[in-house]
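Dear colleagues,

I hope this message finds you well. In preparation for our joint manuscript, I am sending the Serine phosphatase RsbU (Regulator of sigma subunit) (Blastococcus saxobsidens) sequence together with its predicted structure, so that both groups work from identical material. I would be grateful if you could confirm receipt.
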Amino acid sequence: MAARSGRWGRTTLDRHLEELITGAPRTELQRMVLEHDWSRTPLGPQEEWSPTLSAAVSTALNSRFPFLLMWGPELVMVYNDDYAPMLGARHPEALGRPAPEVWADIWADLEAMVAEVMGGRATYSEDLPLVMHRHGFEEETYFSFSFSPVVEPGGRVVGLLDTVVETTHRVLAARRLSVLQRLGSLPRASHGDTAEAVATALGVLADAGADCPLGLVYLVDGDDDTPRLVAGHGVAVEEELATDVLAERVRWAVATGRPQTVTGLSTLLPGLSSSAGPAGRSDVDTAVVLPLTAAGAEQPIGALVLGASPRLPLDEDYRIFMALAAGQVAATVADAQAVAAERRRAEERARSDQARAQFFTDVAVTLQRAVLGPTVLPGGFAVHYEPATGTLEVGGDWYDVVELSDGAYGVVVGDVVGRGLAAAAVMGQLRSAGRALLLESRSPGHVLSALDGFAALIPGAAVSTVFCAIIDPFTGRLRYSSAGHPPAVLVDVDGGVRLLEEGSALPLAVAHRGERPESEVLLPPGSTLLLYTDGLVERRDEALDEGIGRAADALVEGQHLGPAELSALLTERLLGDAPDDDVAFVLYRCG
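The corresponding structure tokens are as follows:
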């Protein structure tokens, strides 16, 4: 066998794996795998790898979906760029190491599944709770994944492939939305008892111990500017709180109207613990002091102290949830105070109603975007999501823009029947599946055909409508397929309007599955494409065609505008009358 030509050199046989990795330039993980000294691992040198191992590694490294390969009796780990963030601080040392060592903290949860796969049976887990130590603390996480056996010719299982997506963000968003929904549906404080109103709101937060292990409400009493502790959970409020630092931060938050973060609570308030959950109990060390600002008030009326779970990072989403909870507590307190002050009742209630309506909109938009996830748009695109007016529920409308490896764009707009957490959960699954399918397929019809089978397995996914398209910006070619969705609108530079109604079939999972039809059209330079959900064009006592016509007229009127400005024009023209249904749309301007 030929010798290796230096540390970074490759023999002819050693280049076999390198030739199986597509795309240029190489990603960081691809380079790490190619340059790793595999001779020091149970896998041995690359030139001695079996064709099955080489093919499995290339499958993982060529995918844009998170993949982990565990190989051999030792379950040696090889993974791709999209899997690496799940490892946290364990990366890059995890590469080439046995999985039971790398994931020692959760191996008890995985070992039985791994044994089942090595016996030849695939497994699937959805939103599996796992407690792992990957960022310096014991973290509550959730994952959906499938373990699939890798079989050599002859039928011997030699490894397993882990197809995985971390769902922690979505699970936490849904859980926190449920808390905010309960806060938002509290009855009005017609009794005028501020203490009772505070206790009711704190009762909701006490039930949410996984996110709010500690809650204290301080209120400013009359002319006395010193905030007074009114009620709390997670600590015996009737006892003297020897927490000068906490009291000082409360006064500062009330005086400035700005939140404060307090650490060291495990020393200041010994004995605090989070509610029992998948991560178990642990001392609470951090809390956020949030000013309670009521609508129309010049100064905060008090402060809400919320303890942060020691099992979760105190990130931006967590702080947004806390701020929204504080906003609802403030609205509850202000409502009670308005009832007690009879002569100001009408004015205060009107302002409180306005604050509640704005709160509902803020929560719906924030939580829907949290479920959709951040989208970095390529040039020429603009997107918009808007919830139905006056509701705290998320919905089932979604959009996605996916950059494909050949420079094309996959675009999807869909609508799940119903509202609330159930519809949002179905939407999240369909969106994730659609994105994965787009990354592996270049056929809109194939994507929707595969979603048919996927939707048939998910309660509540049937009758969902989806419009899927693939845009080639270099040739201007658009291929599309529609599963019962309203037609896309194409407007050329001369104002000609075309509805993309070909390639249409029934909604998802409503009939015997088969190949979905698709159609193709050329996008003239400067033309504008609009994909949307029915909330944009559907109004009571009006034919759907009239709403689509209004959308087309707005596109023609705004042909001279850029995508972002045209999005604002569409919103003004079509959504100024407060839609009864959620709205999602995607705009594309052909270069």
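For the figure legend, we might mention the following. The chain is about 35% helix and 25% strand. The chain has a mean pLDDT of 85.

With kind regards,
E.M.
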